[in-house]
Write a structure and sequence with these properties.
mainly alpha; single chain
Length: 80
């Protein structure tokens, strides 16, 4: 939970949404392949899709939000 708070809400939301969308795609693929492909091959396809979802979700979670450690911009020294 602490890690999620440090990352920011944008990265957290993007990572979770990406994972949910791809997980739903894996579920749809599993249901569509039910009658045409053997169970072992079907599970491999779903596992690959879920692995992509996990890696993409974590990547968006980690890199999706900007750095909170960025130094503030210095004030301008030129008078107007």
């Amino acid at each position: 939970m602490i890690i999620l708070l440090q990352i920011g809400t944008t990265g957290t939301i993007a990572g979770v949404v990406f994972f949910v969308v791809v997980a739903l795609a894996a579920f749809v693929a599993f249901k569509m392949l039910k009658k045409t492909v053997k169970m072992a091959f079907r599970m491999v396809i779903v596992a690959v899709i879920l692995l992509i979802a996990l890696v993409g979700g974590v990547a968006l979670l980690m890199f999706g939000s900007g750095s909170k450690d960025a130094a503030p911009k210095p004030a301008t020294t030129r008078p107007r």
